[in-house]
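User: structure tokens for this one?
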Amino acid sequence: LEIVERLDGVILAGGVDVAPELYADERHASVQASRPDRDSTELAIARATAGADLPVLGICRGMQVMAVAAGGLLEQHVPDRVGHDEHSPAPATYGSHPVRTVAGTRLAGILGEEADVPSYHHQSVLTHPGYAASAWADDGTLEAMEDPDAFFRLAVQWHPEVGTAPRLFRALIEA
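Assistant:
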């Protein structure tokens, strides 16, 4: 909380999978080795920023951390459900696919109705208490969520830092 009080905004960035034990699930064989130090620190930051209503942008793992911090669950291996690897085509290779935003959300105001996004994830958010879904992939994968009661608390499953449109970063900076 002391750290968060000194900040103007936070980006919870992408990275290794969140430990399934933190959302009371058994580990799928595809889950990467856990980083307990990073998990505990980022979960604490997610909770502290929510309490302080500090502007937050979650990116990929950051979205998953925000969901888990709120008591949500993750889908540990998206290809098992969707039957393809479009969200993460190969190691160290970003895919690209369209997402459709939910009308009336902050994200729709930033991106419009649809956007092609750079993607590199095999996990996704299943449940997200306190957050509203704000974008979906055509295969039914949740691609973004936001807290409708927060000043700016938005998370995306894709990697905007790899893309060419900095709209999400501009929105965070403006917030």
